[in-house]
Amino acid sequence: MTQPLDNIHHLALQVDDIEQSLSWYTSKFSCEIVYQDESWVLLKFSNISLALVLPNQHPSHFAVISENLEIYGLPKRHRDGTSSVYIKDPSGNNVEMLKLSELS
User: How many CA atoms lie within 13 A of 54 on its CB side?
Assistant: First the structure.
C-alpha cells in the first residue's frame, strides 16, 4: 500500500506593501482573506493558500502540514494559532513544517 501524499498548506511570497498587494490579489483573483495583520495576510484559493509577507518579518517559503513537528526541531506557536518549525532544503530554500490549530 502506498503512503498518503503530504499536503502543501500555503506558499509565501515576499511583498513590499501588504495592503497594496492584498488589494491587487483580491481584485485579480477569486480568493478569501483567512488571516490578516500588519506583517502578513493569508489568502485562501480553492486548492491552496497564499501568504503575502514582508521581507523583514517572514522568509519566502512553502508550508507542509505535519502533525509531528518535534522531529524537525522545537515548534514555535504563532499568533494565528498554528505552530511550526522552519527547515531548509539542500539548496537553502525555506520549508515551514506546519501544524494547524484546532480552529483551522
Answer: 11
pLDDT tens digits along 56-78: 888 999 999 998 899 999 999 98
The number of helix segments (H) and strand segments (E) in the chain equals 1, 8
The set of cell numbers assigned to 59 is 522568509
* CATH code, domain carrying 69: 3.10.180.10
Beta strands (DSSP E) in the chain are 8-14, 32-36, 40-44, 49-53, 61-65, 76-77, 83-88, 94-99
pLDDT tens, residue by residue, 9-29: 999 999 999 999 999 999 999
**Whole-number Å distance between alpha carbons of 72 and 54:** 25
Does 29 fall in a domain? yes
Nearest by Cα to 60 from 15, 99, 17, 22: 15
Closest by Cα among 101, 67, 87, 95 to 10: 95
Q: What is the pTM of this model?
A: 0.86
